[in-house]
Amino acid sequence: MATWQEMVNSRANTLLKGIKDFVVETGELSYFAGRFFKETLKPPFEFKELLRQCYQMGNRSLVLVGVTGFIIGLVLTLQSRPTLIEFGAVSWMPNMVGISIVREIGPVITALICAGRIASGIGAELGSMRVTEQIDAMEVSGTNPFKYLVVTRILATTLMLPLLVVFGDIIALYGSALVENLKGDVSFQLYFNTVFDALSYGDLIPATIKSFFFGFVIGLVGCYKGYYCKKGTAGVGVAANTAVVTASLLLFVVDFIAVFVSDIFYEL
Amino acid sequence: MNYNMEKDDNITQAQKAASMETIETKKLVINIKDLRKSFGDNHVLNGFNLKLHEGENLVVMGKSGSGKSVMIKCLVGLMQADSGYIEVMGQEVNTLDQDHLDALRADIGFLFQGSALYDSMTVRENLEFPMRRHKEKLGNVVDTEPLVLEALENVGLGHTMDLMPAELSGGMKRRVALARTLILKPKVILYDEPTSGLDPITAKEIIELMRTIQRKYNTSSLIITHDVDCARVISERMILLVDGINYAEGTFAQLSASTDPKVEAFFKK
């Protein structure tokens, strides 16, 4: 039986290994991001592949983002309605829903959905390309696989996510307006007029800026996990899985930083 | 497996030995000296040496995990060797910058063990892909279709141009991969286990194709394999890679007649 000293040593070693792995992975991810910026600015540019990736990631995510946005708008309104009625503040519904969706719920939910769909997809795709030596084949043929596979995907997610967020926000507001129209006899025009009156550039700009960062994080993590996938089919599964988990966690970190920074600007 | 193709072409081992003497006077295409590569405590290559001459078919045989694929990957710069000297067509690979390495790679064809066709592209796009960066080598062609068709017809698959790799059988994938290595008209072709995972008939077809291509384009070939029958049919010279070094060298006939237990182990049925 292990003594308490051995148990403490074992736990301490596990903890130290965990910290070391975290530091190493953070360093590698930072290096990967640095390489992305370097390669992005260096010709030749892969415009055709970038457009293809934008289509794959943007257009193919519309239904998922739309359905989720619609349900979020619907549920948020239905859940908030009784409380607002209790306080006699139901007329504030469009303002409350509009601001919360545009500033926070829309970008975060859309980013989380895209982390699930896009980051795992990129992780699995690049992972299987690594395992089946397709990335090596590209390199041997004189094409820079980092530029062709990684740069295009990260740029595509960075450019497409803000558009998906805007699309998701609009659909969510329609969902909310539908509930208000059915339950409170509020016309769509009145609902949207109230929402737009309540919103300011201070709500829209930080949300849009952070959506770009969300997109960057999703693409970066998905590509990093896939590009350095360990050998074997099990490695592909791990790459897809850890891409979603890491991207989702990083999204919350980025969200916290974005809210913190935008708060400083509000106070100025 | 017994491909038994020497009889078809009337090439005897004696003729091969004679042609070997001629080959050794030809220009060196690949020169590897004292190549070393380790993964932690696992010393895979411990001072491997290799010389490949113009127009020669050299087979490197070794057990699984003996470092054959590592050696071939160091050769094209896919892996960094710990130490040693690698020269390909007069250029030292380890000292080349990325642009020069890419230019050198245009003269090297690489057939991967699992074919490594790009899943998301059609056969045509797979073949066009290497041309993207090396159009000047092909005379800045605008219409790539004739080149793609020629490469595919060389491997007897002209009709598969618009198919996806998933629609092809294992043997067809290997042939398309071979066509892709040919598209840039390389001077040297590296084959990593060209017959692995194929049935004997398809393997025989692939070997026959390799010989036809070698004759047609006068390429030098470095073939990594552990398939004795493949080695017997295609090799002009062989190197046995054991414990990270070139343990034995010679023609197939010389090595298969060896009484050294480590050499014998390769040729035992």
Describe what you observe in this structure.
The complex is a heterodimer of chains A (268) and B (269). Chain A is built from nine helices and no strands. Chain A has helices at residues 4-41, 47-58, 62-86, 93-131, 134-140, 145-184, 188-198, 201-227, 233-267. The radius of gyration of chain A is 22 Å and the shape is globular. By secondary structure, chain B is an alpha/beta fold. In chain B, 36% of the residues lie in helices and 24% in strands.
Defining key terms:
heterodimer; A: 268 residues; mainly alpha; 87% helix; globular; B: 269 residues; alpha/beta; Rossmann fold; six-stranded mixed beta sheet; four-stranded antiparallel beta sheet; 11 helices; 10 strands
User: pLDDT average of chain B, as an integer?
Assistant: 84
The count of domains of chain A is 1
CATH overall fold name of the domain at 6-107 and 186-267 in chain B? Rossmann fold
Low-confidence stretches of chain A: none
Main sheet overview of chain B: 6 strands, mixed
What are the secondary-structure elements of chain A, in order, as H or E?
HHHHHHHHH
- Rg estimate of chain A, integer Å: 22 Å
State the shape of chain A: globular
CATH C-level label of the domain at 6-107 and 186-267 in chain B: Alpha Beta
Helix/strand-derived category of chain A reads: mainly alpha
Fraction of residues of chain A in helices? over 70%
The structure class of chain B reads: alpha/beta
Total number of beta strands of chain B: 10
Spatial extent as radius of gyration of chain B: 18 Å
Oligomeric form: heterodimer
Mean pLDDT of chain A: 91
| Separate helix tally of chain B | 11
Gross morphology of chain B: globular
CATH architect. name of the domain at 6-107 and 186-267 in chain B: 3-Layer(aba) Sandwich
Order of strands across the main sheet of chain B: 6-7-8-3-9-10
